[in-house]
């Protein structure tokens, strides 16, 4: 008679399994029952994950050309610098200096580290600043996966800096008084705050922080001895012609005559969003802090980008004529997709925050929740319940504000208007409103 023997995992592994966030549980469900027109027509329609399919035709054609003109070499089969080969980091530095940072100075490739995704860069950067129990300040609403990136493996603390919603201007405001109050409150509670994480252009708001806001944050963090991480993964996706993106690097280089080293300022970029290369898994860190770069290099063997991927992307990033044309076309297609989805929202009388950049739209479903729940005033619990019902019954995935730490304004949700064609966005909202009208 055989005996079933349990071979237990570590406490850490058990914790990873049991402590899934609401977002992680939801996306697991979506992936297991994803809509497909032929294979799974009754599956979950996903308009919530941040991907840009708009430029896939252009990018795949460019990749084919690179493959044809630059076939794989023998050395591409071997090891290289795990933090990024010198050829790749040089191409990264030149591209980012010209297009993202927009500075005249020649950037030092040794100030860059490349890992397998921006999430990895964020997680590893934070753990270099924070010991377990130390905290990161992040404006909220915030990117929903920051909770996973910051807390899950290294036990750091995430503290939202709640941005009030100004209905007259239709924006969420980054108020430095609230930033300071949040920092002081954390310190009075005995929490050691080590860094501030800013996302610009914003995920989920699609907003762009001004040069003045970024300068104020840089100065504030210097005064309070905090590291500032500037997450700029949507820097080349500005579709509002009246808007200007300012990288933290522009401020760092502009003030060079003041003899400031800005070793507390660190910039994160990725090829996932602007270049439609989510699946390539390439995240980039720029910092002039030698100790941070050294520490990141020391752990780079655990999360490096494959050498073949580096070789391929070195050719891509070195073609500045292509990139200039690509960015221009991407901005044009983003503007068209944004207009198409806002036309859909307007037809259903759904309010939203006017986006200026990126691939995301912050929409207000509070009125729909009130009707569905038959309530005059709704709570955060009502919002989460509505999300679960929409996922289970309408079979549409639109992540709710609770996932983004937007607890003071129930009813907000985030959609990605570039994850599917506009006809599919119309289909998704038809499903939602058919469900809303049913009993």
Summarize it.
Residues 56-421 form the Aminotransferase class I/classII large domain. The chain is of the alpha/beta class.
Structural class: alpha/beta
The CATH level-2 architecture of the largest domain is identified as 3-Layer(aba) Sandwich
- Bin the strand percentage: 5-15%
Q: Biggest sheet, open or closed, and with what strands and sense?
A: 7 strands, mixed
Overall pLDDT score: 93
CA distance, first residue to last residue: 54 Å
Contiguous low-pLDDT stretches (5 residues minimum) are none
Report the total helices: 15
Instruction: Tally the beta strands.
Output: 14
CATH superfamily descriptor of the largest domain: Type I PLP-dependent aspartate aminotransferase-like (Major domain)
Q: Radius of gyration, Cα only, in angstroms?
A: 22 Å
What is the 3D shape?
A: globular
Trace the largest sheet across and list its strands: 2-10-9-8-7-3-4
Helix content: 40-55%
CATH topology of the largest domain: Aspartate Aminotransferase, domain 2
CATH C-level category of the largest domain? Alpha Beta
| Number of structurally distinct domains | 2
Protein name: 1-aminocyclopropane-1-carboxylate synthase
Family: Belongs to the class-I pyridoxal-phosphate-dependent aminotransferase family.
InterPro entries: Aminotransferase_I/II_large (IPR004839), Ethylene_sulfur-biosynth (IPR050478), NHTrfase_class1_PyrdxlP-BS (IPR004838), PyrdxlP-dep_Trfase (IPR015424), PyrdxlP-dep_Trfase_major (IPR015421), PyrdxlP-dep_Trfase_small (IPR015422)
Keywords: Pyridoxal phosphate
């Amino acid at each position: 008679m055989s005996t079933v023997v349990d071979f237990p995992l570590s406490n850490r592994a058990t914790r990873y399994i049991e402590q899934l966030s609401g977002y992680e549980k939801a996306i697991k469900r979506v992936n297991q029952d994803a809509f497909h027109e032929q294979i799974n027509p009754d599956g979950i329609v996903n308009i919530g994950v941040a991907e840009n399919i708009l430029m896939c035709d252009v990018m795949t054609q460019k990749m084919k050309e690179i493959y044809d003109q630059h076939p794989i070499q023998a050395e591409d089969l071997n090891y290289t610098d795990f933090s990024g080969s010198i050829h790749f980091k040089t191409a990264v530095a030149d591209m980012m200096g010209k297009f993202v940072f927009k500075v005249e100075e020649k950037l030092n490739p040794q100030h860059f580290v490349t890992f397998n995704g921006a999430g990895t860069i964020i997680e590893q950067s934070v753990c270099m600043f924070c010991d377990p129990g130390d905290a990161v300040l992040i404006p909220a609403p915030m990117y929903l996966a920051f909770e996973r990136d910051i807390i899950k493996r290294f036990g750091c603390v995430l503290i939202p800096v709640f941005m009030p919603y100004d209905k007259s201007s239709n924006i969420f405001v980054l108020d430095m008084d609230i930033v300071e109050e949040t920092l002081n409150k954390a310190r009075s509670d005995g929490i050691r705050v080590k860094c501030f994480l800013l996302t610009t252009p914003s995920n989920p708001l699609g907003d762009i922080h001004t040069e003045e806001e970024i300068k104020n944050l840089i100065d504030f963090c210097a005064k309070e001895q905090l590291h500032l991480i500037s997450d700029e993964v949507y820097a080349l996706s500005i579709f509002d012609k009246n808007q200007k993106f300012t990288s933290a690097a522009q401020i760092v280089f502009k003030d060079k005559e003041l003899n400031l080293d800005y070793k507390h300022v660190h910039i994160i970029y990725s090829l996932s969003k602007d270049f439609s290369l989510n699946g390539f898994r390439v995240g980039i860190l720029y910092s002039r802090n030698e100790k941070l770069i050294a520490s990141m290099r020391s752990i780079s063997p655990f999360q490096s980008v494959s050498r073949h991927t580096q070789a391929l992307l070195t050719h891509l990033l070195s073609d500045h004529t292509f990139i200039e044309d690509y960015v221009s076309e991407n901005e044009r297609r983003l503007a068209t997709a944004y207009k198409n989805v806002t036309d859909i929202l307007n037809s259903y009388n759904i309010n939203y925050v006017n986006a200026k950049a990126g691939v995301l739209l912050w929409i207000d479903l509070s009125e729909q929740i009130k009707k569905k729940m038959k309530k005059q005033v709704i709570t955060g619990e009502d919002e989460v319940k509505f999300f679960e019902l929409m996922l289970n019954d309408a079979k549409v995935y639109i992540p709710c504000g609770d996932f983004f730490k937007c607890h003071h304004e129930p009813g907000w949700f985030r959609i990605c208007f570039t994850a599917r064609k506009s006809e599919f966005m119309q289909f998704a909202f038809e499903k939602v409103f058919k469900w809303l009208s049913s009993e």
